[in-house]
Protein backbone atom coordinates (compact mmCIF):
# COMPACT_ATOMS: atom_id res chain seq x y z
CA UNK A 1 0.00 0.00 0.00
CA UNK A 2 1.26 3.50 -0.82
CA UNK A 3 2.09 5.72 2.15
CA UNK A 4 2.37 9.42 2.87
CA UNK A 5 6.03 10.30 3.27
CA UNK A 6 5.87 13.96 4.34
CA UNK A 7 3.60 16.97 4.66
CA UNK A 8 3.99 20.68 4.04
CA UNK A 9 1.34 23.03 5.43
CA UNK A 10 0.69 26.16 3.35
CA UNK A 11 0.09 29.57 4.92
CA UNK A 12 -1.03 32.71 3.13
CA UNK A 13 1.00 35.83 3.76
CA UNK A 14 0.65 39.54 3.04
CA UNK A 15 4.38 39.94 2.30
CA UNK A 16 6.24 36.87 1.03
CA UNK A 17 9.70 38.42 1.44
CA UNK A 18 9.18 39.74 4.97
CA UNK A 19 7.49 36.51 6.07
CA UNK A 20 10.25 34.34 4.60
CA UNK A 21 12.92 36.46 6.27
CA UNK A 22 11.08 36.20 9.62
CA UNK A 23 10.99 32.42 9.44
CA UNK A 24 14.70 32.41 8.54
CA UNK A 25 15.92 35.02 11.03
CA UNK A 26 13.66 34.25 13.99
CA UNK A 27 12.72 30.57 13.59
CA UNK A 28 15.79 29.08 11.92
CA UNK A 29 14.28 28.00 8.60
CA UNK A 30 15.98 28.28 5.24
CA UNK A 31 13.87 29.20 2.23
CA UNK A 32 13.63 29.16 -1.51
CA UNK A 33 11.49 31.69 -3.41
CA UNK A 34 9.54 30.96 -6.58
CA UNK A 35 8.15 33.12 -9.40
CA UNK A 36 9.06 36.66 -10.38
CA UNK A 37 8.16 38.69 -8.47
CA UNK A 38 8.28 36.08 -5.67
CA UNK A 39 4.85 34.76 -4.73
CA UNK A 40 5.62 31.37 -3.20
CA UNK A 41 8.24 30.09 -0.77
CA UNK A 42 9.26 26.72 0.55
CA UNK A 43 10.71 26.93 4.05
CA UNK A 44 12.81 24.10 5.45
CA UNK A 45 14.09 23.16 8.86
CA UNK A 46 15.25 19.77 10.11
CA UNK A 47 13.93 17.95 7.03
CA UNK A 48 10.46 19.45 7.43
CA UNK A 49 8.78 21.96 5.16
CA UNK A 50 6.31 24.79 5.49
CA UNK A 51 5.11 26.70 2.45
CA UNK A 52 4.09 30.34 2.11
CA UNK A 53 1.93 31.79 -0.65
CA UNK A 54 1.50 35.49 -1.38
CA UNK A 55 -2.10 36.55 -0.78
CA UNK A 56 -3.72 39.15 -3.03
CA UNK A 57 -3.21 42.71 -1.75
CA UNK A 58 -6.83 43.15 -0.68
CA UNK A 59 -7.22 39.69 0.93
CA UNK A 60 -8.18 39.46 4.59
CA UNK A 61 -6.10 36.81 6.34
CA UNK A 62 -7.76 35.19 9.34
CA UNK A 63 -5.55 33.04 11.58
CA UNK A 64 -7.26 29.98 13.05
CA UNK A 65 -7.14 31.30 16.62
CA UNK A 66 -9.39 34.20 15.60
CA UNK A 67 -12.04 31.69 14.53
CA UNK A 68 -11.58 28.89 17.09
CA UNK A 69 -9.99 29.72 20.45
CA UNK A 70 -6.47 28.33 20.99
CA UNK A 71 -6.20 26.62 17.59
CA UNK A 72 -2.92 26.80 15.71
CA UNK A 73 -2.27 27.09 12.00
CA UNK A 74 0.69 24.71 12.21
CA UNK A 75 1.91 22.35 14.94
CA UNK A 76 5.45 20.94 14.90
CA UNK A 77 6.54 18.02 17.06
CA UNK A 78 10.03 18.53 18.48
CA UNK A 79 12.51 16.49 20.51
CA UNK A 80 13.50 19.29 22.93
CA UNK A 81 10.85 21.98 23.41
CA UNK A 82 12.85 23.80 26.06
CA UNK A 83 15.92 24.19 23.81
CA UNK A 84 13.94 25.39 20.80
CA UNK A 85 11.95 27.77 23.03
CA UNK A 86 15.22 29.32 24.26
CA UNK A 87 16.50 29.54 20.68
CA UNK A 88 13.38 31.45 19.65
CA UNK A 89 13.52 33.73 22.69
CA UNK A 90 17.15 34.55 21.91
CA UNK A 91 16.37 35.28 18.24
CA UNK A 92 13.52 37.66 19.11
CA UNK A 93 10.67 35.55 17.74
CA UNK A 94 7.16 36.65 18.66
CA UNK A 95 6.28 34.32 21.54
CA UNK A 96 2.53 33.74 21.57
CA UNK A 97 2.40 31.63 24.71
CA UNK A 98 5.20 30.50 26.95
CA UNK A 99 6.59 27.02 27.45
CA UNK A 100 4.46 24.87 29.74
CA UNK A 101 3.50 21.25 30.37
CA UNK A 102 -0.05 20.39 29.35
CA UNK A 103 -2.27 18.13 31.47
CA UNK A 104 -2.14 15.59 28.60
CA UNK A 105 1.65 15.18 28.70
CA UNK A 106 2.96 17.62 26.10
CA UNK A 107 5.57 20.32 26.75
CA UNK A 108 4.63 23.08 24.32
CA UNK A 109 4.78 26.74 23.42
CA UNK A 110 3.65 28.89 20.54
CA UNK A 111 4.98 31.67 18.36
CA UNK A 112 3.27 33.99 15.91
CA UNK A 113 4.47 34.95 12.48
CA UNK A 114 4.08 38.36 10.86
CA UNK A 115 0.55 37.45 9.66
CA UNK A 116 -0.59 36.42 13.19
CA UNK A 117 -0.58 32.70 12.38
CA UNK A 118 0.03 30.64 15.51
CA UNK A 119 2.81 28.10 15.11
CA UNK A 120 3.07 25.64 18.02
CA UNK A 121 5.93 23.37 19.03
CA UNK A 122 5.29 20.36 21.23
CA UNK A 123 7.32 17.60 22.83
CA UNK A 124 5.71 14.40 24.10
CA UNK A 125 6.81 13.85 27.69
CA UNK A 126 7.61 10.34 28.85
Describe the structure.
The model has no long low-confidence stretch (mean pLDDT about 95). This protein has about 130 residues and is an alpha/beta fold. It has a single domain (about 10-55, about 75-125), classed as 2,3-Dihydroxybiphenyl 1,2-Dioxygenase, domain 1. The strands form 2 sheets. It has a 4-stranded mixed β-sheet, with helices on one face. Strands 5-8-7-6 form a 4-stranded mixed β-sheet, covered by helices on one side. The chain has helices spanning about 15-25, 80-90; strands at about 10-15, 30-35, 40-45, 50-55, 75, 95-100, 105-110, 120-125. It starts with 9 loop residues before the first strand and ends with a strand.
How many β strands by DSSP? Answer: 8
Shape: globular
What Rg, in angstroms, do the CA atoms define? Answer: 15 Å
Query: Which series of helices and strands comes N to C?
Result: EHEEEEHEEE
**CATH topology (level 3) name:** 2,3-Dihydroxybiphenyl 1,2-Dioxygenase, domain 1
Question: What is the number of domains?
Answer: 1
Q: What is the CATH C level class, in words?
A: Alpha Beta
- How would you state the average pLDDT, rounded? 97
> Major sheet: order of its strands?
1-4-3-2
Parts with pLDDT < 50 across at least 5 consecutive residues: none
Span of the ends, CA to CA: 32 Å
Helical segment count = 2
Helix content: 10-25%
Amino acid sequence: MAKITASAPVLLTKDILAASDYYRDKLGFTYELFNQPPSFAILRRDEHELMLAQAPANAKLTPHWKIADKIWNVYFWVDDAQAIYKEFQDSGAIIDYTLYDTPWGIREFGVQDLDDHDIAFGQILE
